[in-house]
Every structure is written in structure tokens, then in C-alpha cells.
């Protein structure tokens, strides 16, 4: 289904018909389908799981701009989406995600603490390598395209071409956007990544993390973008965090492919469900 919040139309799906609400988001700019199998496992455990294509992802609308960091914009969209679906009328919800979805979840907890029952955080990003790589991957390449060929060149990049294929109206939205304004927004977002290279995790300071008082399940990553030590540090800083280790070792690669995590999906789902069941008193 699709619904409009904060000026953008988002595609979303609810798996499961009863139980506590859980909102999950994938990493990178991946569509919600990347998380559907894991979400279904959680739903089968007795939960209602919301997945959605964030703005600028999947089949949802493209809207490039704003002063807030992109993961903060995503958090605001998710809060509005949960309100519109009536989930928050039943009380706080569990929020979680992988990588960029993890950053969004932390931003959500910081901005809407009263709406969060618990956090599910995996493949946590942090450190100088991650900041440099993500600033380039998320923004630098599109800044270069816009500078060289305007919004038509942005439309031709693989990511935005994919968004247009999933939602053809996105072409007109992109072509009508002011290239200079898009470049300025992406430069702000890129600078935000680079400025946070020395924080415990990208997106939150130590003081902010210590202020998050709801329970959390943390599953560290295992590559240079999601260093194991960053996830372990996050679990130390969050006052009520439980650390779960899915991969014991660290791989000296930019990013471990999603397929390597997919083979561990059942094990990871068991970790997440165990946490959810403990926090929900067996309601799941």
C-alpha cells in the first residue's frame, strides 16, 4: 500500500495481523523487499511488522533537500507513518534496522523517545573509513553527476534510474528539481557524514547515546563500513543494551555482501525474537 506523509508518498507493507508493532528498515538505499524475509520471520513470531520504502528509496517518492540529515528526515517520515497507521495509538513500538536503517532508528529514539518500546540495531556504521565511503556513495557521486550534466545526469545514475523504473513519476520530480539546490543539500549531508567520523557511531554522540534509555538489541557488523568494534562500543554506551554476536570475526573488506548475512537470517531472527519476547512479556 502507499500513503502520503510529510509531502512524500511512501510505499509500505504490514506483515502479521496481531501482536506488538515492530518497524524495520534495511541498510543503504535498499528497498523494503530486501528486508521482507527477515520481517516475515518476526511476524511469524507474533508481531505486526511495518516495512516501507523510505523517501529516495524503492518505489517511494524522490524529494532531495532539507536542512536535517537524511536519516533524521527518514525518522520523521517513519514517525508520521506510524501515526497515520494508528500504531502509536496502541503505545510505543519497537524500531530497528540495518546500517542506514540503524542510523535512522537511533535518530528516531533521540527525537521520539516516548514512541519507542525498544531498539533492534544491526550492522552499525562508524569510523573514518565508513564516513568517507558513505559520503562518496550517498552524495559525492551524485554531486559530480549534477555538476557535469544537471538533473538529467542524476536520473541516469543506476540508483536514480532504478527509482524511476519503480516509480516513473520520479523522473519528473527529479527533472523539475533545481540542480543547485540539490547539490547544496547533498553537500550538507556529505559534510555531516565527514564531521561525524570520530563519533562512536555515525549519527550520534556519546552523550546522545547514553541518553537513550529504552532497551536495545545490538548485533555488530563485520566489515570496514560496519566494524565489529563500533557495534560493541554502541552496546557499551546504550544504558540498557544487550549485545548479540552473529559473526565472531572481522573481514577486511569495504562491505560484506548481503548474501553472507542472508545465510544467517534464521539465527539473527531468533536473536531479535528472543529480545522482543523478553521486552514484550511474551505478547509476541
Tell me the span between the first and last alpha carbons: 24 Å
What's the rounded overall pLDDT mean? 95
Range of strand content? 5-15%
Taken together, the total number of domains comes to 2
Write down the Rg. 18 Å
Structural class determined from secondary elements: alpha/beta
What is the CATH topology of the largest domain? Answer: Rossmann fold
Characterize the biggest β-sheet.
8 strands, mixed
Low-pLDDT segments = none
User: From N to C, what is the helix and strand string?
Assistant: EEEHEHEHEHHHHHEHEHH
Strand elements, count: 8
Question: CATH H level of the largest domain: which superfamily?
Answer: Alpha/Beta hydrolase fold, catalytic domain
Which key terms come to mind for this protein?
284 residues; alpha/beta; Rossmann fold; eight-stranded mixed β-sheet; 11 helices
In short:
With 284 residues, the protein is an alpha/beta fold.
Structure description:
With 284 residues, this protein is of the alpha/beta class. The protein has two domains: 196 residues, Rossmann fold (3-Layer(aba) Sandwich); 63 residues, no CATH class. Helix content is 48%, strand content 15%. It contains eleven helices and eight strands. It has an eight-stranded mixed sheet, with helices on both faces. Strand 1 and strand 2 form a beta hairpin. The two termini are 24 Å apart.
Write the layout of secondary structure elements.
Blueprint: E1 2-5, E2 8-15, E3 21-25, H1 36-44, E4 48-52, H2 70-85, E5 93-98, H3 100-111, E6 116-122, H4 128-156, H5 158-166, H6 169-176, H7 179-195, H8 206-210, E7 216-219, H9 228-237, E8 241-243, H10 258-262, H11 265-280
Parallel strand pairs: 3-4, 3-5, 5-6, 6-7, 7-8
Antiparallel strand pairs: 1-2, 2-4
Helix pairs in contact: 1-11, 2-3, 4-6, 4-7
Amino acid at each position: 500500500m502507499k500513503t502520503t506523509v510529510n509531502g512524500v508518498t511512501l510505499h509500505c507493507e504490514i506483515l502479521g495481523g496481531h501482536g506488538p508493532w515492530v518497524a524495520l528498515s534495511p541498510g543503504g538505499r535498499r528497498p523494503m523487499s530486501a528486508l521482507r524475509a527477515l520481517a516475515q520471520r518476526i511476524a511469524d513470531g507474533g508481531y505486526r511488522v511495518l516495512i516501507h520504502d523510505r523517501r529516495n528509496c524503492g518505489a517511494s517518492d524522490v524529494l532531495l533537500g532539507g536542512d536535517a540529515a537524511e536519516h533524521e528526515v527518514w525518522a520523521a517520515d517513519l514517525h508520521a507513518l506510524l501515526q497515520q497507521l494508528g500504531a502509536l495509538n496502541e503505545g510505543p513500538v519497537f524500531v530497528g534496522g540495518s546500517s542506514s536503517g540503524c542510523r535512522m532508528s537511533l535518530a528516531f529514539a533521540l527525537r521520539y523517545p516516548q514512541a519507542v518500546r525498544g531498539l533492534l540495531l544491526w550492522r552499525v556504521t562508524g569510523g573514518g573509513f565508513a564516513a568517507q565511503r558513505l559520503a562518496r556513495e550517498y552524495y559525492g557521486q551524485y554531486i559530480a553527476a549534477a555538476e557535469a550534466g544537471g538533473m538529467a545526469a542524476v536520473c541516469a545514475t543506476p540508483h536514480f534510474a532504478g527509482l524511476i523504473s519503480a516509480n516513473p513519476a520520479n523522473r519528473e520530480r527529479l527533472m523539475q528539481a533545481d540542480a543547485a539546490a540539490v547539490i547544496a543539500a547533498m553537500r550538507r549531508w556529505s559534510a555531516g557524514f565527514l564531521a561525524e567520523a570520530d563519533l562512536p557511531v555515525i549519527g550520534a554522540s556519546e552523550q546522545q547515546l547514553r541518553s537513550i534509555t529504552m532497551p536495545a538489541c545490538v548485533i555488530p557488523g563485520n566489515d570496514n563500513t560496519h566494524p565489529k568494534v563500533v557495534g560493541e562500543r554502541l552496546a557499551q554506551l546504550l544504558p540498557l543494551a544487550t549485545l548479540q554476536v552473529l559473526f565472531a570475526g572481522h573481514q577486511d573488506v569495504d562491505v560484506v555482501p548481503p548474501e553472507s548475512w542472508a545465510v544467517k537470517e534464521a539465527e539473527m531472527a531468533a536473536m531479535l525474537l528472543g529480545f522482543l519476547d523478553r521486552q514484550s512479556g511474551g505478547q509476541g
